[in-house]
Amino acid sequence: MDKLSEILQQKFGHTSFREGQKEIIEQVIAGKDVVAILPTGMGKSLLYQLPAYFMKGAVVIVSPLLSLMQDQVEQLKMFGEKRVVAINSFLTYEQKEMVMSNLAMYKFIFTSPEMLQNKRFNCALSSISIAYIVADEAHCISQWGYDFRPDYLRISNWLDAFPEANVLALTATATQKVVDDIKGTLHMSNPFEFIHSLDRPTIAYEVQKADSQKEKEAWIMGRITTTNGPGILYTQSRKKAEYYAYELEKKGVKVAFYHAKLEQEDRVLVQQQFQQGDLDWICATNAFGMGIHKDNIRQIIHDHIPTSIASYMQEVGRAARDGKQSIASLIYTNSDVEQAFYVAMKDFPDETDIHAAFQSEEYQILLPETTFRILSYWKEILSEQETIALFHDIKKRKWLEIQKLFTLFQSELCIREQILNTFDEQLTTKPKNCCFNCSLDLQQLLTKREYQNLENIELNWFNRINELLRP
User: What GO molecular function annotations does the UniProt record carry, in alphabetical order (predicted)?
Assistant: First the structure.
């Protein structure tokens, strides 16, 4: 047994590597910059955890979500690693000072993009040895990505203080444009790239068109109340997430809602209940999913057109992590495409905002927080006209992305094949349950839910789902 496999078994309890893991880990240990794109559930965290035991110094992991950060900290502690800390808003001032004063004690240091601007933190980092730096969920670096975080762009200047540290960028989905952005922002020099196939053969794709919002809601309620989970229902608004959860709870479904406005304690509780099987369904915005380690998710449902193919694949990829058959269903109306564009652009400044912000700092402060952060970054490096031109280009590209996804769902061609083509990948083998346009045995895919109170389920919903299940 080689040393890598020995540590894999001793520290993490695995007897073999998954595809690509060993090659990526070897490159990190060799001091190479690495871009690794692996689908959800393919063991991305191991890629930065294992190399640490072969290298001197600490590993700094920049992670965009507090919940994801905490989950990864707890995961390492479960493996027996005590030299791990997350430096974020969860810590009090006194706790942060204690950690900063003893930073050399830690092997794994998790932090947020925003924390990279903290002078006290950077001073503490400069006093210790750093083995390598990890950009987790690295698609957030790119304005062309689906979850753009402007503070992540500042990592570019921050990296200048650590020229000797190699960088590992991790994400589940990224187009070539996003990959190029990642490499440029992270100052990568001839990086090793590993891009795993995006195809998940055990996830079948279903698309349904509804004539109205009312019909859409009836279909969703029928599907969830008559078939088994566990599952996630993705919707675009907090109000909708709460509405679905309340209505489903009335029907006897073990369900909760999740969105960014929940208190942190409530978010952690919902995540834990879902992971432990106390909840069968989560009704959520796109705030839910990163860092959720639940292997047996059988259904993902979207009640809208996502803002990009990449975001869609990130969310449906949370199903079937155990390798068993699952289904990703999407139901839409024609009006959903305009709503998707509104959601995609709502945090980006328009021309009026840009002009006013360049003229007045007071005006900029009045903008929503995300818009303020975006403008704050670009004002530092672009002129007013250059900033207007940039966001005109972003707006155009976002619209094209949404139209492309909308066209894909309306097409009669293979959904799986079209998705893979978007990422310059060819489909070599179609699974038995491929997609709604090829072959899809809903009766086999969807296990009927057992009812204790059948009378509580409205008959028209029950009939609708049974018509779909009929062979």
Answer: DNA helicase activity; hydrolase activity
User: In sequence order, what are the residues at sequence separation of 6 or more whose Cβ sits closer than 8 angstroms to the Cβ of residue 330?
Assistant: 205, 206, 207, 208, 301, 302, 305, 312, 409
Average pLDDT over residues 172-200: 90
Residue 387's Cβ-side half-sphere holds a number of Cα atoms within 13 Å equal to 23
Give the chain's domain count: 2
As a dihedral over the C-alpha atoms of residue 261, residue 42, residue 167, residue 377, rounded to 10 degrees, the angle is -30
Domain hosting residue 244, numbered range: 203-338+404-469
pLDDT tens, position by position, 39-96: 877 788 999 999 999 999 999 999 887 777 877 888 899 888 999 999 987 788 898 8
Decide if 390 contacts 398 (C-beta within 8 A): no
Judgement on whether residues 235 and 148 belong to the same structural domain of the protein: no
| C-alpha to C-alpha distance for 173 and 195, rounded to whole angstroms | 9
For the entire predicted model, the pTM comes to 0.85
Residue 363 lies in a domain: no
Asked if 38 contacts 172 with a C-beta cutoff of 8 angstroms, the reply is yes
CA distance 256 to 241: 9
Q: What is the pLDDT of residues 15-25, one digit of tens each?
A: 899 889 999 99
What residues have CB less than 8 Å from 379, skipping those under 6 apart? 357, 358, 387
Q: What is the domain-level CATH number for residue 39?
A: 3.40.50.300
**Do 186 and 51 share a domain, yes or no?**
yes
